[in-house]
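User:
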Amino acid sequence: MRFERTDVFKSDYKRLANSNRELFRRAAREFNDACVQFVVANDPASWPAKLRVKSVVNAPGVFELTWSFSGTDGRATWEWTTVTDAKGITHPAVRWRRLGDHEIFRNP
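Assistant: Predicted structure:
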């Protein structure tokens, strides 16, 4: 699955502890596989239950996933978008918006 990152997401990522970055990277790989399944089958059951993918309240089109329950609260927000490749073909993609703990929901 193609993706892009907002500048805010990039800043959020830099602030994470190395251990939390690794937890996020693992979750993102699983999330990526689920995104591909979702796009192919358009099946909400594609989302692994442990990632808790759901809509963000009061933020239409923005979704969240939880990548850590124990220790540090790990959350990320994202939205569907499209990207156009060099041949002019449009592909579904994920735009990562925010990354961190529950505080990211103040401005998802």
